[in-house]
Design goal:
Blueprint (H helix, E strand, L loop, with lengths): L1 H26 L8 H24 L7 H27 L8 H4 L8 H11 L1 H19 L4 H21 L5 H14 L4 H8 L17 H33 L9 E10 L2 H8 L7 E4 L4 E5 L4 E10 L4 E8 L5 E9 L2 E8 L2 E9 L8
Helix pairs in contact: 1-2, 1-3, 3-6, 3-8, 3-10, 6-7, 7-8
């Protein structure tokens, strides 16, 4: 009975894992998981794979093992996990995933979503982010080589267990994908489980692991070896290239001329009614935060007034701000000049004149 359950589980994995890999490759670029389609896909795919595995067992009930097929699947999972974890490692080492967000650091924890709390924590220290990224890159490299794959899988299980708990504890929206990577990592250790128990728990000698030949002909084995080398190079090089391209495209780490937190010293507006709104105790403009990625936030005493996209022209000393939330109708166009840590804005708030004097709060510059 136990053998049948084990055999059924392996057959389900032979069907399910390749389908899940294709699904993740097609959808992971959307930036976030745990979408309604994920809640539909994973139960349906799991149920269908189990049903097909049962049919497979009935049709091919005489065969006792699928050693070569299992080794093919393990190789596929090794390269897929190496490629995937390399993406996350490169994003951390190059400071793209958790690059500092001043607006979050300037927000009370009680007002933040759980995911924002986690991202602010990880993004506060680049050295910590760099350490996590290096461990992920190390796991990716170890998974690519057959001799070190077991060590890489152990490291992957350690890394992914932590990530899964963080994702559930802080409601990070990649729970399905992270759990999938953890299950795949555990699957890679299934064949090594008896050997690991002997070495780590029973203090016994472990037998050398053997690998089945993928092909009988030597020429085909060489072709597969060359393809494996090329895929390994791709799994490491492409995530690095893609992350460097993203960093350059979005200007990560290249602060704008106005980057930082600016506290409002004085603000005047040409329309009296609006001038009163901008100076009311709760809604008054207290800070303007200019972030990387050309994002800005105008904060009041108790809440966010709005989020903006902005561009700075240092040649003409002009600033353009377009609100992105809660609406996209408001625009601020002004000239600016600085005097030490003092910033002067003179321009238009919508169709009305606006004059603001601000000073720079240097305590927020934690990642320069």
């Amino acid at each position: 009975m136990l053998y049948r359950i084990k055999d059924l589980g392996f057959k389900t994995s032979y069907i399910l894992f390749p389908v899940v890999i294709v699904y993740i490759l097609l959808t992971d670029s959307d930036g976030c998981g745990d979408l309604p389609r994920d809640f539909r896909f994973f139960p349906i795919a799991g149920g269908a794979a189990l049903l097909l595995a049962i049919v497979w067992s009935i049709i091919d009930k005489q065969r006792k093992n699928y050693t070569r097929l299992q080794y093919w699947l393990q190789t596929l999972l090794r390269f897929f996990l190496a490629y995937t974890i390399m993406q996350y490692g490169a994003a951390k080492v190059l400071d793209v995933q958790f690059s500092s967000n001043i607006t979050s650091l300037d927000t009370k924890v009680v007002d933040m979503r759980p995911m924002s709390v986690a991202w602010s924590f990880f993004g506060y220290s680049f050295s910590y982010e760099f350490f996590i990224g290096c461990s992920q890159i190390a796991a990716a490299l170890l998974l690519l080589f057959r001799r070190t794959a077991t060590l890489g899988a152990i490291l992957m299980v350690t890394i992914m267990s932590n990530i899964v708990f963080v994702n559930f504890a802080f409601d990070v929206c990649v729970k399905f994908f992270s759990c999938t990577y953890l299950v795949m990592s555990l699957y890679l250790l299934a064949d090594d489980a008896p050997r690991l128990v002997n070495v780590l728990l029973l203090n016994r000698a472990a037998e050398k692991r053997t690998y089945p030949p993928l092909f009988q002909k030597r020429a085909l084995q060489r072709i597969v070896g060359v393809l494996g080398v090329l895929l390994g190079i791709f799994a490491i090089a492409y995530p690095l290239f893609d992350t460097l391209h993203m960093k350059k495209k979005y200007g990560v780490g290249r602060h704008t001329a106005l980057y930082g937190v600016w506290s409002v010293d004085s603000l005047r507006h040409s329309r009296d009614s609006l001038d009163r709104v901008l100076h009311e105790e709760n809604n008054a403009w207290k800070k303007i935060i200019f972030e990387d990625y050309n994002n800005a936030a105008v904060k009041s005493l108790v809440s966010d007034v709005g989020y903006f996209g902005y561009t700075v022209d240092t040649a003409t000393h002009t600033l353009h701000m377009k609100r992105t939330y809660p609406d996209s109708l408001l625009a601020v166009n002004s000239s600016y000049h600085t005097d030490g840590d003092t910033l002067y804005l003179n321009g238009k708030y919508g169709d009305d004149s606006l004059y603001i004097r601000l000073h720079l709060q240097r305590k927020y510059f934690i990642r320069q």
